[in-house]
Amino acid sequence: MSDTLVSRSTTVDDPPDHARRWWVLAVLAVAQLMVVLDATVVNIALPYAQADLAFSDADRQWVITAYALAFGSLLLIGGRIADLLGRKAVFLVGLGGFAVASAVGGAATDFGMLVAARAVQGAFGALLAPAGLSLLATTFVTARERGRAFGIYGGIAGAGASIGLLLGGVLTEYASWRWTMYVNLFFAIAALVGGFLLITHRASAHRPRLDLPGTLLVSAGLFALVYGFSRAESDGWSDGVTVGLLVAAALLLTAFVVLETRVRHPLLPMRVVLDRNRGGAYLAMALAAAGMFGVFLFLTYYLQATLGYSAVRAGIAFLPMTGALIVTAGAASTVLAPRVPPRILVPGGMLLSAAGMVVLTRIDIQSHYSTTVLPAILLTGVGLGLVFATSFSLGTLGVTEDDAGVASAMVNTTQQVGGSIGAALLNTIAATAAADWIGGHAGGPTLLAEAAVHSYTTAFWWAAAIFAVGGVLSAVVLRPGVPEIDESTAVVAL
């Protein structure tokens, strides 16, 4: 089967949900927002949950890591399950399971119950995210409408992390840490009802078979990779378990790639990733997510620990970036994408984000938000809006009907793995920079604050480098020219 859209004319027998496609987009956007913000909404609530459930500082990371491990390691199989069983069914099951797990987490009576609920959230998120994106890719296929839809979706996906910080701060300060879990019920139920009523299931003409050996290899490899970087963040890069996990991840993922080139029904057909535009989109998503942690993680620390912002005020401080990202993503997809090649949009977005990080290196212990932080996050928001909107669309463009789910899963997988690597790498670099600063300077009343700011600016320089490298690599990998979409056809198998 050729690597093109499996399609037929839209002028005869349009899909039943074609007329309500914009309502379908609203449902998918709500679900995507829930999944993305859940990676950060719990962060601010962690100290309160720790005090309530009486778990240790060493255990605290598992509330975050359990979600990341399950989500990151199961995304590819989640995407293929959507291809096998039908995207509407898998989308609805993912929503329902996510809602139940969130309710259990909010009602947790001990640490184990909370961590288990977070892991189950991640597992159902791994079903939900690729099913939702593949539904979007198969619902909007004409160039103009696809651009608008992916602009909205990409903007929400990129802004979800900052929205999660604000929402987490508001819920924790004015309600309870438990509401950072319960709030998912509102998102999930709304999307569940909307998805059931609005999305029409149509069976695919082909049903790909499940590649069980490939599933086991890639799930184990991604688990080892995400866990390895999580261990590096907490226990250091020289820790024996960390090294063992990363070596195992390299071996398992290499074996997976070799296997996929030889089996008849691969979990991840190499044609999906070897296309230059799709491969470039996956690479851009990974590096953008890695660099983005330089904004959310360390800027959150700076605003609260150094400038004394409350959790809510820190969340509000990110709103200009969120707005810039959403507006830019929409403009990139509707105005720029039909005229400007991705080879310009994605590297341009990366370089703007790098410039934002460079501006952030000017902070000190008495900086003003309006003169240092605000210009930086506006630049970064514009840059990430260009990257996310373009990459979400490119990552699913031109795949066959049978591969829509797994191509969508690759977009989410690279974003998740890139974020895990970025968090571990930048945290380690920042911790080393702070220790070196303290060791090289005489004690004083502001020594610790100065060391912290130095660690943040060091991380921002490294984040700028990650974005810059992403800009160069995406310029090399992405094809010149604007990708063509056949506007006389529409995918019909969901």
TrEMBL record:
Main location: membrane
Membrane topology field: Multi-pass membrane protein
Superkingdom of source: Bacteria
Domain Major facilitator superfamily (MFS) profile: 24-482
Alphabetical list of Gene3D superfamilies matching this protein: MFS general substrate transporter like domains, Multidrug resistance protein D
Any Pfam family the entry gives: MFS_1
InterPro entries listed in its UniProt record: EmrB-like, MFS, MFS_dom, MFS_trans_sf, Sugar_transporter_CS
Keyword Transmembrane helix on entry: yes
Gene Ontology cellular component annotations, sorted alphabetically: plasma membrane
Keywords: Cell membrane, Membrane, Transmembrane, Transmembrane helix, Transport
Transmembrane segments: 21-42, 62-82, 89-108, 120-143, 150-171, 177-198, 210-229, 241-259, 280-303, 315-337, 344-363, 375-397, 417-439, 459-478
Subcellular location(s) per record: Cell membrane
Matching SUPFAM superfamilies: MFS general substrate transporter
UniProt GO MF annotations: transmembrane transporter activity
Protein name: EmrB/QacA subfamily drug resistance transporter
